[in-house]
Amino acid sequence: MIDNQIIATVLVHLFIAILQLGFWRKTVPQRVLSIGGSFISLIFAIKLFTKVFNGDILIMHAANWEAPFGIVFVADLLSSTLVLLTAIAALAVSIFSATGIGRQRILYGYFPIFHFLVMGLNGAFLTGDIFNLYVFFEVIIISSFVLMTLGGRKAQLEGAVKYMAMNILASTFFLTGIGLLYGISGSLNMADLALIVPKIENRAIVDITATFFLIGFGIKSAIFPLYFWLPSSYHTPPSAVAAIFGGLLTKVGIYALFRVFTLIFIPNEFIRDLLLVLSILTILTGAFGALIKTNVRRLFSYLIVCHIGFMIGGLGMYSKLAILGAVFYLIHDIMVKTNLFLIAGLIRQMRGSMDMKKLGGLYAEYPKISLLIAIVLFSLAGIPPLSGFWPKIYLLQGAFENAHYLYAGALILGSFITLFVIAKFWSEVFWKKSPDPDTIEDKFKDLIGIRKIALILPICILAASSLYIGLNAEIIIQVADRISSEMLNTTPYIQAVLGK
Amino acid sequence: MKSTILQTASRYLLPILLLFSFFLLLRGHYFPGGGFVGGLVASIAFVLHSFAHGTNETMKILRYKPLSLIPIGLGISAFSMFMPAIFGLPVMTGLWLEHPIPVIGMIGTALLFDIGIYLVVIGVVLTILFTISLSSD
Amino acid sequence: MELLLILLIGVLYATGIYLILRRSMVKLLLGIMLLGNGTNMLIFLLGNITKGKPPIISDGLKVFQDIYADPIPQALILTAIVISFGLTSFAIVLLKRVYALINTDDLDNLNTPEDEDI
Lengths: 500, 137, 118
Known about the structure:
The complex is a heterotrimer. Chain B is mainly α.
């Protein structure tokens, strides 16, 4: 099936960004365009998802060039699910940004860049060409550099230097990998590569190429020895930006790892063990890092690192159950991590600080909002029957099935530390009496009604999605089950793309 | 940098380089050239002018901010990319007029795309260079 | 020719990584640029160098009659060059701003304790 609808979400965000560039100095039209455009792209994403879920893999030959020669866009269930989740997260963040981002930053082009970023994310999820994936990655990182530095505070710029250096390095590794891959296979189409690469005789060079991809995507998705840039930069930009970074940017790396290591380089013993060891170390360092941080956003950054480990481990075990768990965790994680940073932004609006030592007494003052936040925190910690609980069951089952007891131990320890950290966060920020009630600057109370709604509504949307994922787990399991079978049996994907 | 030779030369070089950049843009589809190179040559024409006469003088010639070229160019390119979808073809498919037009040659979506790129490149390069040179003054 | 290019790529990668590992911001920038150039040369080399045979089908023919230079690596390199042009110009401006703020070239001084004014 050839269908232009596949890249509708990409085009919507592109046109929105161009229109906003036309309204360079006017903040109100930019806000309206952003929310409206995100909503339209959500509708397209839902249509795409239902079409793929009820039917077959959709493809589109860009410029009408046949598959292995031209660039092809593919919407299989993994891609369309991620596009849908991106659309939900982008809608939430664009509503939050309408109030959460200051006027000065909007004047410097926050919204167009934000939409270019989301366009890049959608494109990266949908493309079926490895070099096109690189190009969309570059669109993402250039936009994220701008969002990171917008505003130009000292801490922001310092974080941006680390972020920039590591991400450019990651792109260089990725590009080197592509160069080697093209040299040994002569193709760039991922489905075509899936047919060629297993037949290459010289396995050593294939392994080296795979390692280049692992390092490149590993830096982007912040796995163990390469994650240091994340906690030292994600706490600096505005919370809306941190939300889209924390929710989606690292997940693009995970998506790319899943795609490349299930389609092109089927992991051998060595790569599987490597992934498992890295995942265990990632979980442990992330969890221990989260234990000692008192700044709310630094704490969340370490939790991101910790939970990246869960998903990498699922890929490393490479069995049906484990990948099912990892995909489910990915779905859950995008919703929850985006929400966590939005919550951090809300707390910042309410208290003027993000240091847990200076926070307190939120439950007494805002009981309803606190209960809303509690749902999100429980989902994150994995209290049954909320969304974080189900994928861990599958991951654990997968670990026991394949006798990876170390990973199972790390998973349990990581979950416990997450629970502990969240409990500490809750009692410090919400239950504890405010340590210094006179110095609180509560901007939230003085906001007019619609602005308050703009801050609360996105958190509600994402919390509702998390609740849906948790309470309707059987539907999500069905989706994740189909995704994992598509990942382990790539023949339908290859047939759809190459038409054989 | 105030040099009479450079100032006089740049006054004549500006239109010649702009004409050359336009030539590169138009022949770009089948021969070496194209929107990107053409845009770079055009922006170099302005950069040379700004070296000789100072950035403020060049901005006076341009009248509009180079930044405003970016959305126009992007819009043209994105539209040419999207146009085949109106006719039910996959996006980015090349659409061409049947007969070539004298001087310009074949007209199609690829030329429209190149014009967009041309404008974006001028806009981006001049914005970057003007920002750097104005902030270091 | 190939051997020369291999040596050049090795030198570019080695100096690039060496410079990135230094503590100076300018050296970091130079390292990133050298690594990018090394990668471009690598893609160029891996596309198999064919001299003087452009991939253009002459008039009156439908298919290639002779061996021809692979155009894809050149397209890839062109794209990569444009991207790295954007990245490098951004990096230069960023490092310039950082230098203006902290007044030193040393990357170890980039750890101002948390200040919160987001």
